[in-house]
Amino acid sequence: MVWDLDNTLWQGTLLEDGEVTLPDAIRDVVVELDSRGILQSVASKNDHETAWARLEKLGVAEYFVLPRIGWGPKSDAVRRIADTLGFALSAVGFIDDQPAERAEVTYHLPEVRCYDAEDAEHLPGRPEFTPPLQTVDSRRRRQMYQAGFRREAARAEAAGPDEDFLRSLELDMRIGRATDDELSRVEELTLRTSQMNATGVHYSDADLRRLLTDPGHEVLVVTLTDRFGPHGAVGVLLLERRPAAWHLKLLATSCRVVSFGAGATILNWLIDEAARADTHLVADFRPTERNRMMEIAYRFAGFTDADPCSCVATLPPAADDLQRLHLRPSPRPASTTIKVSAVNLV
Predict the structure, then answer these.
(1) What was the pLDDT predicted at 226?
(2) Which end of the chain is more exposed for a tag (fewer CB within 10 A), N or C?
(3) pLDDT band, very low/low/confident/very high, at 93 (cuts 50, 70, 90)
């Protein structure tokens, strides 16, 4: 949601009146949208330093990411905000008190939804601002994006090998059994993750709750933090511990953490656990148009379909388009760039 400032977010015109006020009702809207995981920004024709200082004085500056405050067309500002976030324009709203400004944005960016400032108090009641699925991570989405901007700035300034930069991040990965509060995020990962999803299968909340109560299954959630802040939940593993082998039914990781080596770190941890348990690993994999990176991760970790083993035959029959990749585990060294704290599966 991209806000105009004068007579939209606040009452008054900053450069003319000198003093503006933020109605409590509008403040409540900003806070409520933020709590739902809806990112908010600013596109305003104002002096940047003056307007930002007033947002800070009003106590709401922290709620707005990538503000564009200047004198260019507002359609340019909205487009730059969407491009930097990687959002489709159809996922962006713009609110302004001036019909001419809304018309300018609509003309150049017809996919953007435009709202009259008079409708500001009613935004939380609109379906497009009421996500059907709210998770622990969505409630802190803004903080994660803000941490991401600082992280990318540090990466751009870093000199030397990439491994040195990764160590400087102080990455901390935690792998644990899913809690009730985390199930919605686990479901979201199985639904939205495509490039780093081994099977493309969506597990519903009911499916996940059934597996949680099954002593033969593990529903594991992977979270990641670093010195800039949380990445949130970035991975999920669905594992069945069978007598002849551990069956990895699903591994899905967020594409946001691929460059940090998160996928390889998760697999190496699981392989090391299986080696300690003296059991084989069998991983389900269904190739799609988008998950080639996941296949590479499995192959690089040592999984193969060219190693016939009797343990594979003990699993229920696989669907025709499902591959069963096999691995005879051996101990793996700890990551040199990510600290891992994990549940003990043995």
Answers:
(1) 93
(2) C
(3) very high
Question: In this model, does residue 159 exceed pLDDT 60?
Answer: yes
DSSP 110-168: TTSEEEEGGGGGGGGGSGGGS-S---TTGGGHHHHHHHHHHHHHHHHH--S-HHHHHHH
Q: Taking the mean position of all CA atoms in its chain, how far away is CA 75?
A: 27
Radius of gyration of the chain (CA): 24
Q: Residue 269: its pLDDT value, please?
A: 97
Please tell me the distance from the alpha carbon of residue 316 to that of residue 29, in angstroms, as a whole number: 51
Burial string for 232-247 (b: 16+ CB within 10 Å, else e) reads bbbbbbbbbebeebbb
316-332 tens-digit pLDDT: 888 888 899 999 999 99
pTM above 0.70, yes or no: yes
Rounded CA-CA distance 190/252 in Å is: 7
Contacting residues for 39 by C-beta, under 8 A, at least 6 apart: 1, 65, 85, 141, 142, 145
